[in-house]
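Notes to self after the Tuesday call (sharing in case useful).
The group wants a holo model before anyone commits to mutagenesis around the pocket. I volunteered. Ligand is zinc ion. Logging inputs and output together so the record is complete.
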Amino acid sequence: METDFRVHALASGSSGNCTLVRANGANLLIDAGLSARAIESHCRRLGVAIDSLDAILLTHEHSDHIQGAATLARRAKAPIISNSATLNALRERSTADFPMQILPTGDTFTLGGATIRSFPVPHNAAEPVGWVIDSGQGRVAYATDVGSVTDNLREAIRGAHLVVIEANHDIKWLWKGSYSPQMKAQVASPVGHLSNEECAELLAERMAEGTAATVWLAHLSRENNAPALAKRTVEERLAKQPCAPHCVEVALRDQPSVSWRYGAQAFQMSLL
Ligand SMILES: [Zn+2]
Ligand SMILES: [Zn+2]
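Result:
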């Protein structure tokens, strides 16, 4: 059977992160960092009623990733799924109970015929993770809030048809910008956020290998980045070498933006 596998970016950045994934009739969110009301309305516009939500996967407990999570989980009677360190941190921040399911980092579960697993990422949170969702035919890898590139991250994006990856800041803009010296050091640290340049290097490695991919640059900083700059940095780096067919898009900060459907993407062939 042909897989029906779609992903929609609802918001991506420090004022809120939420991605809707639809895999063969199952509906799940990766992070729920907007108000429950905003997420409900975005989902409804995409034809997904909130009571048909099956799970909320969390990357980590920072507020831009969890804001509406507990309320939505209660309303949809859908579990929040993450490792126990993240769930404990979330429980400390929530006033009421919510349905949840512990998934140790690196473990796998299945939903709607899709296999879902988390992998560790370096970030200043309790036990931050990225996610890989495999529908049997298509694979999506999701990693934002990653301070540095690790083998786990390389491995996660290797065969993915959709790579959602952080391009948080331009390193020069960060150092010249208005953040305090302490903030700048925190963002640039190996447990902070991934720069456009680091993201571009990682993608150059990935695209040197076989599988075609759509890339979404995600979690862009409002202060220290711009969509066109992030895209240009990555595309210029990729243009320096032979690459698998690919297209690079930007997930916008504060509104639903890009959508992906397995098998429906047209790729521009690399000219090298
Ligand atoms: Zn974040
Ligand atoms: Zn974070």
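Two things stood out.
The domain at 5-261 is CATH 3.60.15.10 (Metallo-beta-lactamase; Chain A).
The longest helix spans residues 196-207.
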